[in-house]
């Protein structure tokens, strides 16, 4: 029977950490090992972890300096990689969610199928800081499509939160090290999964996903248009730099190159109407999950370019 490993990253999480750890205790199918990496917390987070270490099969690692959630999860996954067999399974745990008792049980079933995926993810109920449910489905609330093409992932779309997933430990060799230019670690993990197997969505909710004012990812204040263009441009350049590592096809490389060119032009020049045919042709990759009307609006808006949007619409 495959073992299940959990990578948990914490940072100043005393407010919600105990209920999260309690939900690990109540899993119908218990984790075999939990690697908790504390990212230099200055509250009671470490004390809470130490309290639960006697109740859970937990190994605690403490970073001497805060490095951010991407680095903390990377450290946890590296530790798991040392001991996991290729057919073992790995889960990602955020410090503020509450897992439903059947999470492992439901997700693990997908790996028993004949054409088993390398990565599977479920849905979630959405709760607020006080634990009150505010939405039945995170997938519906955020407009997340069940499936997206590789090029959508290469243009910054991700349809699978790490906390909702379970994946084969054999994927760790492709995931690690997580590049520093990746804004959100789970975008990289799901891209690696899609390029090295298959990503499968299941309809069941597997946890209560907590939305509050200190989320690292999730529903957060929108960043400025210029900052978004700069971040996406840097990520596109990063993908091109590791094209061999990701085993990108010629078509995928050409897509990323054209996408990078579009971002650069949109940031520096207006209007960018010459991009409309390319945007239209690649609308499924660039705007997955959007209605046809919304895609048209996004294409027209994108073709205006940042300088015009800043001048006429007050975009920052």
Q: What gap, in angstroms, lies between the N and C termini?
A: 53 Å
Q: Count up the helices.
A: 15
Shape: globular
The succession of helices and strands, N to C, reads EHEHEHEEHEEHHEHHEHHHHHHH
Number of strands: 9
Percent helix, as a range, is: 40-55%
The overall pLDDT average reads 94
Instruction: Give the strand content.
Output: 15-25%
Major sheet size, sense and barrel closure = 9 strands, mixed
> Which regions have little confidence, pLDDT < 50, spanning 5+ residues?
none
> Which structural class fits the helix and strand makeup?
alpha/beta
Rounded to an integer, what's the Rg over CA atoms?
Answer: 20 Å
Q: Could you explain the architecture of this structure?
A:
The chain has 316 residues and is α/β, with parallel strands linked by helices. 43% of the residues lie in helices and 17% in strands. The chain contains 15 helices and nine strands. It has helices at residues 17-25, 45-52, 69-83, 103-109, 138-142, 150-154, 172-175, 185-195, 225-241, 243-246, 250-268, 276-281, 283-286, 292-304, 306-313; strands at 4-10, 33-38, 58-62, 89-93, 98-99, 119-127, 133-135, 165-168, 199-210. Strands 1, 2, 3, 4, 5, 6, 7, 8 and 9 form a nine-stranded mixed β-sheet that branches. Helix 2 links the parallel strand 2 and strand 3. Helix 9 runs antiparallel to helix 11 (250-268). The longest helix is centred in the last third of the chain and has 19 residues, at 250-268. The mean pLDDT is 94.
């Amino acid at each position: 029977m495959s073992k299940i490993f959990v990578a948990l990253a914490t940072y100043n999480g005393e407010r919600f950490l105990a209920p999260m750890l309690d939900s690990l205790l109540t899993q119908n199918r218990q984790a075999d090992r939990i690697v908790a990496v504390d990212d230099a917390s200055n509250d009671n987070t470490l004390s809470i972890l130490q309290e639960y270490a006697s109740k859970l099969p937990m190994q605690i690692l403490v970073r001497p300096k805060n490095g951010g959630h991407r680095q903390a999860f990377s450290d946890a996954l590296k530790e798991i990689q040392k001991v996991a067999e290729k057919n073992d399974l790995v889960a990602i745990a955020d410090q503020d969610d509450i897992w439903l008792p059947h999470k492992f049980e439901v997700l693990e079933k997908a790996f028993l199928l004949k054409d088993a995926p390398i990565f599977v993810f479920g849905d979630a109920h959405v709760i607020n800081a006080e634990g009150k449910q505010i939405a039945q489905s995170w997938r519906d609330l955020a407009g997340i499509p069940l499936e997206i093409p590789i090029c959508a992932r290469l243009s910054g779309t991700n349809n699978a939160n790490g906390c909702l997933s379970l994946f084969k430990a054999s994927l760790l060799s492709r995931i690690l090290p997580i590049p520093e230019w990746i804004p959100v670690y789970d975008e990289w993990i799901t891209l690696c999964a899609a390029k090295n197997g298959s990503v499968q969505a299941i309809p069941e909710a597997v946890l209560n996903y907590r939305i509050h004012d200190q989320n690292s990812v999730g529903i957060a204040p929108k960043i400025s248009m210029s900052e978004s263009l700069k971040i996406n441009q840097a990520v596109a350049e990063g993908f091109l730099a590791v094209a061999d590592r990701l085993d990108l096809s010629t078509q995928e490389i050409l897509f990323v190159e054209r996408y990078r060119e579009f971002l650069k032009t949109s940031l520096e020049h207006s209007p960018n109407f010459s991009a409309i045919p390319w945007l239209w042709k690649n609308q499924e990759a660039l705007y997955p999950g959007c209605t046809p009307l919304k895609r048209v609006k996004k294409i027209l808006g994108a073709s205006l370019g940042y300088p015009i949007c800043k001048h006429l619409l007050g975009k920052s």
